[in-house]
Specification:
Blueprint lengths: L5 H20 L2 H16 L53 E10 L2 E9 L17 E7 L7 E9 L6 E3 L5 E5 L2 E10 L4 E8 L7 E2 L13 E4 L5 E5 L32 E4 L12 E2 L2 E2 L17 E8 L2 E7 L6 E6 L6 E8 L10 E5 L2 E8 L10 E7 L13
Parallel strand pairs: 14-18
Antiparallel strand pairs: 1-2, 2-3, 3-4, 5-7, 6-7, 7-8, 8-9, 10-11, 11-12, 12-13, 15-16, 16-17, 17-18, 19-20, 20-21
Helix pairs in contact: 1-2
Bound molecules: beta-L-arabinofuranose.
Length: about 400
């Protein structure tokens, strides 16, 4: 049932207000109890849609979901569809435009944290000004029938982020110690991209943003990877409108330019997250991506060098760093033995999609691996994109065959 009506909206606002109050008053025990009841209301009652009808407030049905499961991030066979199959190569929702999907398995359920593309029609430019997003929705797959996608409605809006002014770009999510974290880039009041974090009691929030961006953060496209030992790392950065080239000296310089074609390419940034997941623990460093002969990729090598949209997954003990090559429109990957790299370029993950941007995540669910990606096939317009998925495989040697959308 689609529900762009009162109860969902009011419920969401009420949950938000109570969470804000609890966050501020530090009533941790009530917080936990409330989180448990929220988890039940979010997962004990499914909010399903067949991805057909327009709604920006979330959609919900009264059908109960079995086996609510444990809190936290699970992988592999921990999660499973009780019925139905994941819809491959189709827009997951048609009721809103979504992009930049970050997929995670939380509480046995597969969630997607996408950007929310708006019905805006500004002229496009290389600065990305036409990506004027203002809020985030969370999607999930109804475990009772995984062909159904649930839109949980708006979970964070730029107006509730004290430091941000506009352009809520590609987000990610993580879980630690009973709390869910939503990481996101946005321009601050001086038009400089920073990375923010918001906390919530369930995978679908409600999320309350920290009053300031993460100290020392900059650029766009945060991706958080929690390793098997519990250590969490953030990877981030993006060229052109993503402003990474403006930080070459460690300080923001609006006039600085990209390296020359024969210079080493700019790499994604890497930072260890603090135990509370709210700040960087130590300095931000640059990831090195090298070729088979250990030579750093050059800026002019635009079919292989990093542009934006970095993601990290681990398979059989190897760390896979994947990213978009931007102006050549590929998703590619590199591997390393440590989360910090250096990473060795391996090959292409995905051939170009319809539309300028390509952005993805990789997740294991129920023993299979999936690539979440987006294209603009529904709109034909770069800044109105739709999230899709397809199965991805790792060969016996760990290589990933190139997929074609
Ligand atoms: O969605 C806005 C930007 O476009 C993202 O941050 C980039 O990765 C690209 O997909």
């Amino acid at each position: 049932m689609n529900a762009s009506v009162g109860p969902i909206h009011v419920g969401s606002a009420l949950r938000h207000a109570i969470f804000v109050l609890m966050s501020r008053s530090g009533l941790r025990s009530i917080h936990i109890a409330f989180a448990a009841s929220l988890s039940f209301s979010c997962h004990g009652v499914s909010a399903t849609s067949n991805a057909q009808a327009p709604s920006n407030q979330g959609s919900e049905s009264a059908a109960p979901l079995a086996q609510p499961g444990a809190k936290g991030e699970l992988s592999g066979s921990a999660g499973a569809c009780l019925a139905g199959v994941l819809p491959q190569r189709k827009a997951l929702v048609t009721s809103l435009y979504t992009a930049d999907p970050s997929a995670h398995v939380f509480e046995n359920t597969l969630y997607v944290y996408p950007s929310h593309d708006l019905e805006l029609n500004p002229p496009s430019n290389d600065n990305g000004d036409h990506y004027g997003m203002k809020d985030y929705h969370v999607l999930s797959f109804d475990r009772g029938n995984c062909s159904k996608i649930v839109d949980h409605g708006e979970v964070l809006n730029v107006k509730n982020v004290p430091w941000a002014s506009k352009q809520m770009w590609a987000p990610d999510a993580a879980f630690k110690n009973g709390t869910y974290f939503l990481y996101f880039p946005a321009r601050d009041k001086h038009d400089v991209f920073r990375l923010g974090v918001a906390r919530g009691p369930s995978p679908v929030g409600p999320f309350v943003a920290e009053p300031e961006p993460i100290a020392g953060s900059y650029s766009i496209d945060p991706a958080v990877f929690v390793d098997d030992d519990g250590r969490a790392y953030m990877y981030f950065g993006g060229l052109w409108g993503g402003q990474l080239q403006n930080w070459r000296t460690g300080k923001y310089d609006a006039r600085s330019a990209l390296p020359g074609s024969d210079e080493n390419a700019l790499g994604p940034r890497f930072a260890k997250l603090s135990a509370d997941m709210l700040s960087f623990d130590g300095a931000v460093t640059e990831i090195s991506i090298v070729d088979g002969a250990h030579r750093p990729l050059k800026q002019g090598d635009n079919q292989r060098r990093f542009f934006e949209g970095v993601w990290l997954h681990k398979y059989n003990g190897t760390y896979y760093l994947s990213y978009s090559t931007g102006d050549t429109h590929y998703l590619v990957y590199a591997t390393a033995n440590t989360p910090r790299g250096p990473f060795t370029y391996q090959g292409r993950l995905l051939n170009p999609v319809a539309g300028w941007t390509t952005h993805h995540s990789i997740v294991e669910y129920d023993g299979k691996w999936y690539l979440f990606y987006h294209d603009d096939s529904l709109s034909g317009v770069d800044n109105k994109r739709s999230v899709k998925l397809m199965e991805l495989t790792h060969g016996a040697d760990g290589s990933i065959p190139t997929l074609t959308p």
